[in-house]
Specification:
This protein is an all-alpha fold. It has two domains: about 60 residues, no CATH class; about 100 residues, no CATH class. It contains nine helices and no strands. It is elongated. Keywords: Membrane, Transmembrane, Transmembrane helix. It comes from Streptomyces cavourensis. This is Secreted protein.
């Protein structure tokens, strides 16, 4: 009888350890959130003055609110129109960087809405939803949004525009974003973006 109780106790402790690892340490906690959100995790921790518990609570809430979002597919015509619109915006950058950055911001908002992300007036809500599904690319969107009216210099606007192309490609594609972002005209020198 004593052996059976010890075996049951050990099994319960092992089950609790597995549960703790999966729920707090893996899928829902620190390492899982850090892995899922990448640089966005660090940005949120910094915004919470290093309080990882508060940052992880915020990121858990984002996943709860936006994790089940179903992306709507784009028609080929819509995909072609967005591609043409981005190309026009990119060409416009040479003559009017400020206007091109503002157009890129609006274009990303329109594309996100058409793919099924929140269409509300709140940029932060849209960026939070995008961060759940495109955490590696959402910073470019944040940079373009802030560069459109924060007095950024041309080089900062160019960098934001180039970085935002990653989110554009990710939203436009059904799969992962292509490696070549097609921003050669805006990059320095002859290298890729």
């Amino acid at each position: 009888m004593t052996t059976a109780i010890i075996v049951i106790a050990v099994a319960l402790v092992a089950a609790a350890a597995v549960y703790f690892f999966l729920v707090r340490g893996g899928a829902g906690g620190g390492r899982g959130l850090r892995s899922r959100f990448g640089p966005e995790y660090d940005r949120v921790v910094a915004r919470h003055n290093g309080d990882t518990k508060a940052a992880e609570h915020e990121l858990d809430e984002r996943v709860r609110r936006h994790g089940d979002l179903e992306k709507r597919p784009l028609t080929e015509a819509a995909r072609a129109e967005y591609t043409a619109r981005w190309a026009r915006t990119q060409e416009q950058f040479v003559e009017s960087p400020q206007q091109a950055v503002a157009e890129a911001d609006a274009l990303l908002a329109d594309l996100a809405r058409d793919r099924g992300f929140p269409a509300g007036e709140s940029f932060d809500e849209r960026a939070d939803a995008l961060s759940v599904h495109h955490a590696r690319h959402v910073d470019g969107y944040r940079r373009v949004h802030s560069a459109r009216d924060d007095g950024s210099g041309t080089e900062e606007m160019r960098e934001a525009f180039v970085e935002a192309r990653g989110l554009f490609d990710a939203l436009l594609a059904d799969g992962p974003a292509p490696r070549d972002h097609g921003n050669r005209q805006l990059t320095k020198g002859r290298g890729t973006s």
